[in-house]
Structures are given as C-alpha cells and as structure tokens.
C-alpha cells in the first residue's frame, strides 16, 4: 500500500493541491452570486412571458368563443398566487362549480412579487369581450387597461394592457419612457 507521500511524489504536492483548492473556492465564491442573479432574472423573465401568454390566450379564447373570458388571480388579490383563465358564467370573477376552466398557472417563485394598476381596481382580473377588447366587470364598454409588474430583487418586468386590450412586455431599466407604471397601459 502506498503512502500519501508516495502518491504525491509523482503528481502534486500537498501544498500545490491546497493552493488549487483555495483558488477554486475563491472563484466559486465570486461566481455564485452572479449565477444566482442570472437565475433570478431568468425566473422573472419566464414568469412575465408566461403571464403575457396567458393574457393573449384569454383574448384569443374570447374571440374564438365570441363571449367574455376572464383571467383572475388564484387567490383574488395577487398574481403571484397564480392565475386562472375561465368562462365566468355569473360574472363574479371567481371560479365556481360548473364554470369552464381553460387554463391555470401555479404560484410563482416565493421571492417574486407583483403589483398591478388597472382601470377597475376592486379585484385582480383581466377580462375580454368576444370582439377581443378588454373590459371591466361593471361594463363591457369600459376597457380594463393598465399594468402588471413582476419584481424579483432589483429586476422588474411589466406587462402592459392598452385600451384596445393589446399587451406587451417591457423592462423599465432599458425603456423608461414607454415602460412607466401607469394606468392606461401605453
């Protein structure tokens, strides 16, 4: 059986091995925060893209069916709890027994936050009529326009719904002028 001295005599010395491990540890310590920031940014972009796609699905389903289709926050207050796209037969903005659910999305990452500012602020929802225009719960003639903001750490993504019901994603860090947190969705 060989001793450690015999093994290291043909390769690395113990000092060389310890220096290599120390350098690797320092490099990993520097890389992990950058990697964590990268992963958080990817989670944020992914969530904003999934939310954007769900809004567009809600609009497309309303047009396809020629009827009102709603997208609501799962818990009724925050988009981070998830969202549900469904046909709200009784216009109460809650999924009741017998109402057709088109799509559901689970809760977002635990450290992600959301805020929204829309025409109708009483509940957290986005609703479309059969012609593809957004609407408030109280009137099919009043558009439900505004902004949903997702934030993770310092990174922010906003999804804007304009008065016609069209949506877009923007990053306020790169587009301050047209990505303001405003009510009209412009």
Tally the structural domains: 1
CATH topology: minor pseudopilin epsh fold
Please summarize the sheet with the most strands: 5 strands, antiparallel
What is the number of E strands?
9
Q: What is the element string, with H for helices and E for strands? A: HHEEEEEEEEE
For the CA atoms, what is the radius of gyration? 25 Å
Write out the strand line-up for the largest beta sheet, numbering strands in chain order. Answer: 3-2-1-5-6
Low-pLDDT parts are none
Estimated share of beta-strand residues: 15-25%
**Averaging pLDDT over every residue, what do you get?**
87
- The CATH superfamily is known as minor pseudopilin epsh domain
Structural class assignment: alpha+beta
Instruction: Look at the structure and give the CATH class.
Output: Alpha Beta
Q: Judging from the principal axes of the Cα atoms, what is the shape?
A: elongated
What would your notes on this structure say?
This protein is an alpha+beta fold and 186 residues long. It has one domain: minor pseudopilin epsh fold (3-Layer(bab) Sandwich). The protein is built from two helices and nine strands. The protein has helices at 4-9, 14-65, and strands spanning 69-73, 83-86, 101-105, 113-118, 125-128, 134-135, 146-152, 155-161, 167-170. A five-stranded antiparallel beta sheet has the order 3-2-1-5-6, covered by helices on one side. A four-stranded antiparallel beta sheet has the order 4-7-8-9, with helices on one face. Strand 8 and strand 9 (167-170) form a beta hairpin. The model has no long low-confidence stretch (mean pLDDT 87).
């Amino acid at each position: 059986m060989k001793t450690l001295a015999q093994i290291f005599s043909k390769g690395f010395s113990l000092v060389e091995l310890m220096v290599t491990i120390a350098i690797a540890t320092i490099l990993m310590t520097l890389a992990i925060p950058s990697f964590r920031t990268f992963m958080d940014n990817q989670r944020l972009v992914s969530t904003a893209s999934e939310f954007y796609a769900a809004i567009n699905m809600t609009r497309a389903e309303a047009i396809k069916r020629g009827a009102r289709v709603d997208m609501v926050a799962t818990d009724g207050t925050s988009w981070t709890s998830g969202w549900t796209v469904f046909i709200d037969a009784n216009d109460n903005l809650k999924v009741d027994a017998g109402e057709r659910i088109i799509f559901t999305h689970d809760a977002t990452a635990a450290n992600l936050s959301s805020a929204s500012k829309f025409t109708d602020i009483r509940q957290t929802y986005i609703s479309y009529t059969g012609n593809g225009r957004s609407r408030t719960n109280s009137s099919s003639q009043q558009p439900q326009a505004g902004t949903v903001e997702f934030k993770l750490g310092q990174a922010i993504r906003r999804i804007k719904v304009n008065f016609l019901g069209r949506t877009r994603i923007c990053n306020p860090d790169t587009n301050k002028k047209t990505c303001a947190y405003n009510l009209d969705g412009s």
